[in-house]
Write a structure and sequence with these properties.
CATH class of one domain: Mainly Alpha
Number of helices: 9
CATH topology of one domain: Glutathione S-transferase Yfyf (Class Pi), Chain A, domain 2
Low-confidence stretches: none
Order of helices and strands: EHEHEEHHHHHHH
Radius of gyration: 18 Å
Strand order of the largest sheet: 2-1-3-4
Mean pLDDT: 96
Largest sheet: 4 strands, mixed
Number of strands: 4
CATH architecture of one domain: Up-down Bundle
Structural class: alpha+beta
Length: about 240
């Protein structure tokens, strides 16, 4: 099966977590909105008046299925491409962890848009600075500390054992994104999460991920996505 991934063509965003899973699995997929009439097709699918239209991208077309929401897509892909445990309990645990990643991603976005996405960053600079201070003081230690603790408790190469899962790929993206958006703050914080840093490096060295990162399929970080670099927010 060749999948079609629908997501905004100019940013990594939430679609990147799906791209990483597809790339690591070596799955055939079309990043549909990045060429031809893909954007128009994406909008038509969201505006459909029947069936099960997705609310927003990313969504994945797999045969006749259209699956939306990042964690939901990864739940589907994980069991089909060896990126999740086979037992139901393991699948649910991994899905739970991915939902926790999703919560953290929202808080990362809110560092630069604390008053909402409809306003420009320039319209909320003071609240953004205040939100970012609280984010690094309270939220980063809470979230990354949680995942660091799981790595320490498990004592394995990956979050659920010796085999990589889609959550490991997502944790790689969190570290990479925070390094881009907050290089000074993240450099100082990394000593608190050495196992997550090692996990990032381990994922980056996986053959399919390494090839993806070096290709033009990997959209560069930029100031339109979730991870945005604003010097005044980096301490």
């Amino acid at each position: 099966m060749k999948y079609a991934l629908y997501y905004w063509p100019m940013i990594q965003g939430r679609g990147e977590y799906v791209r990483l899973a597809l790339e690591d699995a070596g799955a055939a997929y079309d990043d549909a909105a990045r060429h031809g009439g893909g954007m128009s097709a994406m909008m038509r699918m969201m505006e459909a008046k029947k069936g099960t239209p997705p609310f927003a991208p990313p969504f994945l077309k797999a045969g006749k299925l259209v699956i939306a929401q990042t964690a939901n897509i990864l739940l589907y892909l994980g069991s089909r491409h060896g990126l999740a445990p086979k037992a139901e309990a393991g699948k649910l645990w991994l899905h739970q962890l991915q939902l926790t990643v999703a919560d953290f991603v929202l808080e990362i976005h809110d560092t630069h848009h604390p008053l909402g996405p409809s306003l420009y960053y320039e319209d909320q600079r003071a609240p953004a600075k205040k939100r970012t201070e609280e984010f690094w003081k309270e939220r980063v230690p809470k979230y990354l500390g949680y995942f660091e603790g799981l790595m320490e408790q498990g004592g394995s190469a990956y979050i659920t054992g010796r085999r990589a899962s889609y959550v490991d790929l997502s944790l790689f993206q969190l570290v990479a994104g925070l390094r881009y958006a907050f290089p000074r703050r993240m450099k100082a914080f990394e000593r608190e999460v050495p196992r997550l840093v090692e996990l990032h490096d381990r994922v980056a060295a996986r053959p399919n991920i390494k090839a993806y990162l070096a290709s033009d399929r990997r959209i560069p970080f930029n100031e339109q996505g979730i991870f945005r670099r604003y010097k005044e927010l980096d301490g």
